[in-house]
Amino acid sequence: MIVTVVNQKGGVGKTTTSVNLAYVLARTRNVGLLDLDPEGGTTVSFGMRREKVEREIGGKSVNIFDVEVFPAHLGLLRRELEGDVESTVASVRKVAEGFDVLVVDTPPNLGTLSLSATVAADKVVVPVTPQPLTMEVLKNLDSRLKGLNKRALAFTNGSKKPLKEGASSIEFVDVAIPQSRVFTDASRLGVPAVRYDEFRFRNGRLTQHYNALAKVITG
Ligand SMILES: Nc1ncnc2c1ncn2[C@@H]1O[C@H](COP(=O)(O)OP(=O)(O)OP(=O)(O)O)[C@@H](O)[C@H]1O
Ligand SMILES: [Mg+2]
């Protein structure tokens, strides 16, 4: 199963979602995590560096906390600018063959990489941080999804009230990931927030939220 995390808006939690979903799913499944953002947010969140070489998609992986992480590399930029969707979709599907679940993190745009990962996806997940232009962003994404004949599951960091109308391909699930300082602290340390939360506080509150999200996504 391919789970692609998208939102063309930057800084809404795509990387945080990808990293923590992969982390909790890896407790019960064989999980891969593909960083398709040339910026390498997921790569850094697992304490690694972007690779300064051009690779194929899925060309190298490292197992961290039971997640097989495919770090970002310079080849992603070339794909974004020169690559075609069909072959990129095929590459993503090929990587997914080795796993129960492949989680894919995407860049904040609707370019080749995020489009391909969306086409390849069995489940499209949209983290939403309600802000003034959120509805416009979601409507654009919605029309893109309709064009692809895809549906997406969305969640917010709390309130979901203003976001119900106008984007019929995007269904808001009954799970929210509340705001927390843990995310910033964890990303500074290069570990998934769920892991950091468990070690630091031993109450596993974040774990419960991400387990709930994982459940509605993987059903
Ligand atoms: N639920 C949350 N509560 C508080 N902070 C959060 C939450 N989710 C994410 N953050 C923080 O918000 C910032 C942006 O998150 P993240 O990098 O996941 O977004 P993104 O959509 O991947 O951004 P980009 O589009 O630039 O790749 C990070 O500093 C992260 O720690
Ligand atoms: Mg990101």
TrEMBL record:
Residues 2-151 form the AAA domain. It holds the Pfam family AAA_31. This is Chromosome partitioning protein ParA. It comes from Sulfodiicoccus acidiphilus.
